[in-house]
Amino acid sequence: MTTEQMTGAQALVRALENVGVDTVFGIPGGAILPAYDPLFDSAKLRHILVRHEQGAGHAAQGYAMVTGKVGVCMATSGPGATNLVTAISDAYMDSVPMVAITGQVASSLIGTDGFQEADIAGITMPITKHNFLVTDAGDIGRTIAEAFHIAGTGRPGPVLVDIAKDALQARVGFEWPVAPQLPGYRPVTRPHSKQVREAARLIVQAERPVLYVGGGVLKAGASGELKVLAELTGAPVVTTLMAKGALPDSHPLHMGMPGMHGTVGAVGALQRSDLLVNLGARFDDRVTGKLDGFAPRAKIVHADIDPAEISKNRHADVPIVGDAREVIADLIVAVQNEHEAGRKADYTDWWRQLDAWRDTYPLGYDEPDDGSLSPQYVIERIGKIAGPEAYYVAGVGQHQMWAAQFIKYERPGAFLNSGGAGTMGYAVPAAMGAKVGAPDTTVWAIDGDGCFQMTNQELATCAIEGIPVKIAVINNGNLGMVRQWQTLFYNERYSNTNLHAAKRIPDFVKLAEAYGCVGLRCEKAEDVDEVLAKAMEINDAPVVIDFIVHKDAMVWPMVAAGTTNDDIKIARDMAPEWENGD
Predict the structure, then answer these.
(1) R_g over Cα of the chain
(2) Is the dihedral of CA 164, 166, 169, 175 positive or negative?
(3) One of 129, 165, 244, 299 is an active-site residue; which one?
């Protein structure tokens, strides 16, 4: 190990290089400025100057999700740091590995309400896996090593490193490699074999099992193992919003997405099951509906790498703590052993019921009576034309649900969205980060006109940095999901959801062009394929398409908040023909 004399800022840059970082999304400012001087000289680090710190955070998320690496964002103290909070919270909810580096006022000013001071470590404590306040230049290298280790291991998540300005300016002896000093941090990855064997026993004894698959399966890279387990058992599979593509949508065992806007088949499977094998999901309220009415007769096997999730929302009859890939691999062996011992289940009757639901209540939509453009049709055609190899990044709201429903995901990780936090403004910067991480793959952002106006300044970043994302703005002139709730639950009193798109304020085509992008508009179904084909041909600039769609299209099926999944509606006044509890 050699020791070099350098500034804390140089130590920061060297440490980032040494942990394998190649891209940093950020904006300089006073407290972080010392770090930007050696960053200017780095041959290994590409810094992408975003237009808002929230964009830096979401871009780091998108980059992390397509590369599997830890995403990195950087901001200055005070408002620079607080502008990262939304993205940090988003990454925390969706278990995205990210390190946020912030400058802090000089250590002598900490606690004095100095200019641009904010206790960002305190602010983010509930929404990070861990965070650090560094006031000694000698701690910078080790802290970076620890931050990346924490962010990328166990249940992934965001880590904040807040560094005082004087620590960045001080000279220090830099040593590498450094061993992380984290004696209390020991993520469990290997599952307990007794628990796995018990889970296998329940699977072969069950009559109506369901494999309930969450984002943890994608995080663990366990899609291959999941397919083997599903085909071995013959059990139906439901994949949550965060697990789209974990099993191909076209696979005959796949029942679709469960939850508030899930398929009738997936919701029915969960509700009528006698065994739920939960793999890397957290019994989120958007899946369970009213919790005391969720899967009332099911025993629960719950496997998760985070022990805090086990029995948090639903008691687990068989708790399994471990990495999803290792859990599923061991479960495959345990089920095979059960089969070899002559214990194998017959799910014929169960599949007869599941197929009936799937055939009777497929996903679909009605064309608008007035001849206007159907948003579902637009999104469906994007998926068909861009194909399964593209990445699709959705904002939050109706368009997010339609993207989950009407694009077919045949590979893991193809769908990026803000699931737990539900962050408007996520799509454009996350798509930007995804394109940086996968420059040779087509990246489509599917956004709403409300979401798009929160972070569309990153179009400038995309244009200047040569990041040719493609953005479909599903423009219904309203905050669509909120309007849907107002239609259904507030007597059509549309309070402050009309964005006045008829006045074209803003004109998204002109806005795109002003930002150095290609702007297109589409208002008719017969023009959709032509416009999409044109967008697909443009690979040297970002493209924005303003799709003018019907304002009152709704997302169905729907389980209203506060009701049980048995109360699922397939249209405004229509429910599936099943009796609650049958």
Answers:
(1) 25
(2) negative
(3) 165
Residues 319 and 210 in one domain: yes
Q: Say whether 478 sits in a helix, a strand or coil.
A: strand
Q: Are both 318 and 385 inside the same structural domain?
A: no
Does residue 208 lie within any of the structural domains? yes
Question: How would you classify residue 431: left for phi > 0, otherwise alpha for psi between -120 and 50, otherwise beta?
Answer: alpha
**pLDDT of 494-505, one tens digit each?**
999 999 877 889
481 counts as catalytic: yes
Q: Is 116 a catalytic residue?
A: yes
Domain range enclosing 436: 375-548
Query: Both 56 and 165 in a single domain?
Result: yes
Has 129 been annotated as catalytic?
no
Q: What is the pLDDT of residues 146-166, one digit of tens each?
A: 999 999 999 999 999 999 999
Structural domains counted in the chain:
3
Q: Which residues, including other chains, have CB under 8 Å from residue 412's CB and lie 6 or more apart?
A: 218, 221, 223, 245, 246
Instruction: Judge whether 235 and 203 are in contact, CB under 8 Å.
Output: yes
Looking up tokens 């004894």 gives 205
Q: Tell me how crowded residue 496 is: count the other CB atoms within 10 A of its CB.
A: 8
Confirm whether 116 is domain-assigned.
yes
- Looking at the structure, tell me whether residues 526 and 404 fall in a common domain: yes
Residue pair 390/446 in contact by the 8 Å Cβ criterion: no
Q: Is residue 368 part of a domain?
A: no
Mean pLDDT over 453-479 rounds to 98
Q: Is 115 part of the annotated catalytic residue set?
A: yes
Q: How many CB atoms are closer than 10 A to CB 162?
A: 25
3-state secondary structure of 286: helix
Could you tell me if 314 and 396 lie in one domain?
no
Q: For residue 53, indicate whether it is catalytic.
A: yes
Q: Which of 115, 125, 207, 489 is catalytic?
A: 115
Catalytic residue (choose from 10, 25, 53, 558): 53
List the catalytic residue out of 65, 74, 481, 558: 481
What is the per-residue pLDDT across 11-39, written as a single tens digit (0 to 9) for each? 999 999 999 999 999 999 999 999 999 99
346 and 381 co-located in one domain:
no
Find out whether 158 and 81 touch, Cβ atoms under 8 Å: no
Q: How confident is the model at residue 1 (pLDDT cuts 50, 70, 90)?
A: low
The verdict on 341 and 477 lying in the same domain is: no
Q: What is the CATH number of the domain that holds 35?
A: 3.40.50.970
